[in-house]
Amino acid sequence: MMDVREAYNRCEEIIAANSKSFYKAFSLLPKEKRKAVWAVYAFCRTVDDIVDEGKNPDVELARFKGTFQQFLSGSFDAENPMWVALHDVFKNFQMDEEAFNCLIAGQEMDLVDSRYETLEDLLVYCYHVASSVGLMLLPVLAPGKEAVLKEGAVSLGYAMQITNILRDVGQDLRIGRIYLPEETMRKHGLTEAHLLRNEVNQPFVAVWEELAAEAERYYRHSFETIQEYPLQSRMAVKGAGLVYREILFAIREKEYNVFREKHYVSEKSKQAILACL
Questions:
Q1: How far is CA 195 from the centre of its chain?
Q2: Do the beta carbons of residue 108 and residue 24 sit within 8 Å?
Q3: What proportion of the chain, given as a percentage, has pLDDT over 70?
Q4: Start-to-end Cα distance in the chain
Q5: Is Transferase given among the entry's keywords (predicted)?
Q6: Read out DSSP for 196-213?
Q7: Rounded distance, CA 211 to CA 191, Å?
């Protein structure tokens, strides 16, 4: 069996390479919690990559789903760092199995749906692919506080996923996905043709800002119970939320150019945000 320390190190490499914002924020955690977050992130990243990059994602995701069920029954590849680290996490924390299954179900949605009619429809998707991650992490970040923190974790997932959608409009278009709710687009006169022409016009800005307002509302709501987290977990969660929210400001500064450019929060801004926690 792969050494558990090596397994965690490999999971850390995955988050460090793929999500510098989360990596920086959750590095504030104590060692055991920090390692557990790395393992959960590796699970999430694996599922996401199957859908976005897999050669046969339907088959690969179904196989992964079966592999996870085997993992839950105690059978897993002892040379796979993600499963080795995750096994240790499940041994040390009271993990919520349903949250993991919820994430897989969300990725299944991406194989079927590429359009959403209403904001409410979109939030169902956001719950599955993002709020589920917060629910996975609650037993690690705040053991015994899951019930009081669940609503805030769900809201933070909504906020972060809407932020992702607003940042990745161009990238999603290139793979045939439009997450902007069709009802909101019609309300402001934004058409799919506008999007395909990469037009940053008044209707696009209006749709973008309406969704950004929803994201900001969910960020605020998620912070209402932040004091219920243990101190170091509180700093990590709030830091992650504030850094992610900053993406919205970065996009506005670049005049909403989300079709040809992917926007990030600068290292200087991240350090400034985290220094104020």
A1: 24
A2: no
A3: 100
A4: 40
A5: yes
A6: HTT---HHHHHHHHHHHH
A7: 16
Question: CB neighbours (10 Å) of residue 30?
Answer: 11
In this prediction, residue 26 carries a pLDDT of 94
Rounded CA separation 172/155 (Å): 23
C-beta separation of 200 from 255 below 8 A: yes
Q: For 250, list phi and psi in degrees, rounded to 5.
A: -65, -40
| CB neighbours of residue 79 within 10 Å | 10
Question: Residue 192: enclosing H or E segment and its boundaries?
Answer: helix 192-196
Mean pLDDT along residues 48-54 = 91
Nearest to 220 by CA among 164, 274, 152: 152
Residue whose token pair is 């839950």? 72
pTM above 0.90, yes or no: yes
The pLDDT value recorded for residue 212 is 98
Rounded to an integer, what distance in angstroms lies between the CA atom of residue 230 and that of residue 213? 29
Q: What's the count of helices (H) and strands (E) in the chain, helices before strands?
A: 15, 0
Residue 13 vs residues 10, 19, 72, 98, 195: alpha-carbon distances, Å: 5, 10, 24, 26, 35
Round to whole Å and give the CA distance between 10 and 85: 9
Distance of CA 81 to the CA centre of its chain: 21
CB 244 within 8 A of CB 161: no
Residues 6+ apart with CB under 8 A from 154: 127, 131, 134, 135
